[in-house]
Design brief:
Blueprint: H1 5-21, H2 43-50, H3 54-61, H4 70-79, H5 84-94, H6 111-119, E1 124-128, E2 133-136, H7 138-143, H8 157-163, H9 165-169, H10 174-191, H11 196-208, H12 210-216, E3 226-233, E4 237-248, E5 251-260, H13 266-277
Antiparallel strand pairs: 1-2, 1-5, 3-4, 4-5
């Protein structure tokens, strides 16, 4: 996580190096040259495939390449075999967009989002781009944790996943969840490198979690859209939930995440049981997080 233009370029270099190491010469259409000292493509090979001088590509990775053109970034994305999320991240790092001055107002759910959240009969959370949980319904509390009982600083999905052993134990595919979570934060760092809440969160996680430091160094980026959470609840056992992340119309930097079980499945039965317990949990709320 970085905060200044010079550091954006360092982030760009680290991202390019990580992605270059992930592409094999044969997959890039190069002949097999035998054993290599390091995995992936060499700088000179990327430069050749992209169509620039090795000197320029080296300077690009070192943060001295100026502002790359869109055509050059498209070529780099093609050679490094970036998916749509990685390509977007590359553009964020290489051509950072002008950003308005940071405001001090608190980031909260709108009243319409709050009202909609209260109508849902499945677990649902509202999160900011730093994975701060600012809204929840009772069934989400019954499934995951009682957010209303947590200190505000701990109402963050990434914080809970890495630093709360009880919450971590509920994720049957913890490593996959952890990697995706770090990928979301990496993507946010590219989009909003000056976000102080993200800087503080990444700093704390990096100090306290060796696994977080390892995953952060991979420069993996991930956009939360839809997938499966495989949970292990202490009261109802294993529960498989399909999640969908929705962008809230009046707050594009927030997402509403719903979690659904396949009808007629054991997971659906488990949710039904949890629903009978959910009334003991408080409804949605919002934090004192400041807008990025």
């Amino acid at each position: 996580m970085t905060t200044k233009p010079r550091q954006w370029k360092s982030e760009l270099g680290e991202f390019l190096q990580a992605r270059r190491a992930a592409v094999s010469p044969t997959s890039a259409g190069l002949p097999d040259a035998g054993r290599r000292r390091v995995p992936g493509l060499r700088r000179e090979e990327v430069a050749m495939l992209v169509g620039v001088s090795t000197d320029y590509y080296v300077r690009l990775e070192q943060g001295r390449g100026g502002r790359p053109t869109e055509a050059l970034l498209d070529s780099i994305a093609r050679v490094l075999q970036l998916d749509a999320t990685q390509r977007s991240h590359l553009y964020d790092l290489a051509r950072p967009r002008p950003r308005p001055a940071r405001r001090s107002a608190k980031e909260r759910m709108s009243e319409s989002t709050r009202e909609f959240l209260e109508t849902l009969s499945v677990p649902a959370l509202v999160m900011t781009r730093t994975m701060q949980v600012i809204g929840w319904n009772p069934l989400a509390c019954a499934m995951f944790t009682d957010y209303g009982a947590l200190p505000e600083s701990e109402r963050n999905s990434a914080w809970l996943l890495f630093l709360d052993e009880e919450i971590a134990a509920r994720h049957r595919d913890w490593e996959d969840s952890a990697r995706s979570t770090v990928g979301i934060l990496r993507k946010t760092a590219g989009e909003d490198p000056d976000n102080p809440q993200l800087s503080a969160l990444v700093g704390e996680l990096a100090v306290r979690s060796e696994t977080f430091r390892r995953l952060w160094a991979e420069h993996h980026v991930f956009e939360k859209s839809t997938g499966i959470n495989r949970m292990r609840h202490p009261d109802v056992g294993d529960v498989d939930l399909t999640y969908i992340a929705w962008t809230t119309p009046d707050a594009p930097n927030q997402m509403l995440v719903t979690y659904m079980a396949k009808p007629g499945s054991k997971s659906a039965e488990a949710l039904h049981i949890l629903g009978s317990m959910a009334s003991s949990y408080g409804g949605s709320d919002s934090t004192d997080l400041h807008i990025g």
